[in-house]
């Protein structure tokens, strides 16, 4: 599979062959660009790029329908500037024309250089087929194109990093980084690697450039994450990559510089992850709720789905193979796929056996005592029941689906205040508004279209930590004042009023999905117990999480008749 340059522009994902080379100045323009439909607003800031890289489009003869103006094969390259959230490093927006004699310039000078030094531009037609056309651009039009480019990355499918620490792994990492960031020079010894902890499935490396070269408008620290063994069974890596690009276009995620064969290279956010007991801190949870509310209102599912469709079509064509099976398109289909590959695990079978009176497949049977059931049969029927019972009770959003403490980053200033006051103590009152919200969400492996109440409920279940202390989970009832404050922050948006009825309705909605996270992660952990090499008791964790589902179902069947749920039939 060839290396590829992935560009998110005008709400769509586009692809160009990638070649790392210093080459003649050129600009990239699209003839079909219209109004920016991603919802991104220019904040006057930008995410730093690997700014002196030459993102070269391979020789024009390699692109269908492209004919060079003379017999010599020209290499075209371009750099686009992506926007950044307030807490990310501030840089000046720029477009750089790359050549063997020059590396970067300001917007005005480089745009003029691109137009004057290149007779041909790469342009996209209505069908997204790129072709060479005579340049009639002016420098403002090139600058406008940069404005419409929301996010971008390179894809290096043939690059692989060993998942375990070794001298060979370090060599692989450093060589790949120098390819992605040629402005770091060519001395591998200037790259410092530090392994981070916090996740339970992947390896995470912090990579810092320590050399003497002046890295102008670029990153000196990035993260590399390699995928855990067997996680491809559980995680759609194409979806993760596209989701990250789209989130970056909304200024809700750091820049993703590159995707390689078994991982990602992306921007480093200064700060630290929360501890699980800080999730309920009254000075912290309003920020989390507000950020999640902004996320659910802003990120458009259809932008991700269309980008994913284009990516799969692009690489299916390049590999000249058919897609072997349909990938899940929402959280319900994902869980169904997990159940299909779940083995007959004794611990999970025992948990289900203790709740035979709640098993839907037995409740449907005329003689429940006489039937013999497999784990897959039991859980498949429970999923069908769940979907039919509450499937339409919450709006579908681009759900993060893994909002545990380790995936929530706070800045150093807030961290110091929490440490000084005590992690569970309230600190100074702050004005809550998403433009100044210091919270950042990371790790988008499990992003998937799903009910917003599932995403919220899943976060609340994470308050218990990996030790599964159920007493820490907030009760989803209208009289819970903490939950009412959380929901107020979630619902609050500029220029709107949050009413008591809105809060009541959201709490009822959340309560309907309180059992789904346990069902979801119980199945996930069951699969992990058979494939993961990580020293973690996935089997025991699986059973504890599935118990949450059965306990919720017992509560729900009892409450269903006495509580008036607007969405229930």
UniProtKB/TrEMBL annotation:
One of its GO terms (biological process) is phosphatidylethanolamine biosynthetic process. InterPro entries: Kinase-like_dom_sf. It holds the Pfam family Choline_kinase. GO terms for cellular component: cytoplasm. GO terms for molecular function: ethanolamine kinase activity. It is an enzyme of class 2 (transferase). Coiled coil: none annotated. Its EC number is 2.7.1.82. Pathway: Phospholipid metabolism; phosphatidylethanolamine biosynthesis; phosphatidylethanolamine from ethanolamine: step 1/3. Belongs to the choline/ethanolamine kinase family. This is ethanolamine kinase. The lineage of its organism: Eukaryota, Fungi, Dikarya, Ascomycota, Saccharomycotina.
